[in-house]
Amino acid sequence: MQRVVIKRDGTVEKFQMKKLINAIFSLLEGLKLEDDYETVFKIAKELDLKIPEKVSTEELDLLVLKAIEQLIPTHYLYDTLATRQLLKIINKDIDRRLSSFKEAIQFGVKESLYKKELLDFDLDKLEEALDYSRDLLLDYFGLTTLRDRYFTRDREGRIIEKPQWFFMRVAMGIGNNEDEIIKIYNKISNLEYLHSTPTLYNSGTVVNQYSSCFPAGTPIITKDGLKNIEDIQIGDVVLTAEGNYKVVSGLFKRKYKRNLYKIKVWGLWGSEETVRATNDHRFLVLPKESIECSRKFYKVCPPYQNTDKCYPVEREYASTCVKTEVNILESLRWVEAKDIKEWDYIVVPYPKETNDIKEFCVL
User: Fold this and answer.
1) Using CA atoms in the order 143, 144, 148, 153, what is the torsion angle rounded to 10 degrees?
2) Which of 118, 138, 319, 358 sits in a 20 to 30 Å window from 90, CA-based?
């Protein structure tokens, strides 16, 4: 089979494996490896049979990324290489349309994606503060999450932000002057802390919502047990996302008239509990199509509930199920609440709180 590569300008050239191997070697730059040839060989071997007779340069970049993805479970190094390859794809795509951070902000304002007030800042000074080496602080899952969920897209759905442009845009929506913005940018681009999803998504944009809101009925873990969020009072002690308890110092209530979706999640709080969210709230989901069948589940009795709260975790099951090799990173998708299907798997945070328990039963 004579394979050819179709370049961006439409010209066609003979596919050369040597060029592809050199491109893979470039991903290893700066990494200390015992045997970089072995690493490149594994990627090339994973890739070779998947290259079609005719392939565009964009498709070739994606095939390299998919080949590296397949190797991530075997060694953490491939996570780094996948991150670098995805950065390469993002940068090449954006560079064809936008030449600088300043141009991206101006374009976003022109297209009514960003607030016009962003143009009041010294964009040249902010651009000089960008540190692209910090892109490599992101792991592959983190970068794919930013790309799929947080990066601004134009009216045609194309990304118009690189990671550092994203962090600076978020900082611009929070800071009052260039020095404040750069200080905030340095903190979040170094991953010292990150704001909540609404802030990351909307900061600097025409959508003026920076805080996370939870609907009435959301269960909150307190020192006195579970309470609905609307029953929380100033002075209550609640469990935070960091796994420690803090005192509630203030309350904010917002009137909301949109419809809420109720999603029952087996194994979250109990069989009768649901997660409620707006139609466009996104969940990290492993689609049901990715798994043919599941291992058999038993009845589960949460340790914080009485035994009458035991419930079965249901799923299709067959004794003939063959273990399905699923590439989790490749299969995970950010899905809006309205598009979640029955038997999809929803990813939930792993609790950071640890407590001694006297008993736990599995029936």
Assistant:
1) 50
2) 118
Shortest CA distance to 189 belongs to which of 200, 176, 204, 201? 200
Q: Determine contact, residues 313/267, Cβ cutoff 8 Å.
A: yes
| C-alpha to C-alpha distance for 115 and 269, rounded to whole angstroms | 40
29-44 pLDDT, tens digit each: 888 776 677 888 888 8
235-273 as b/e, with b when 16 or more CB fall inside 10 Å?
ebebbeeeeeeeeeeeeeeeeeeeebbebebbeebebee
Can you read off the two tokens belonging to residue 204? 């600097």
Joined together, the tokens standing for residue 31 give 């990494």
Q: In terms of C-beta density within 10 A (0-12 exposed, 13-18 middle, 19 or more buried), how is residue 40 classed?
A: buried
Model confidence over 75-129: pLDDT tens digits?
A: 888 899 999 999 999 999 999 999 999 999 999 999 999 999 999 999 999 999 9
Structure tokens at 223: 């020192």
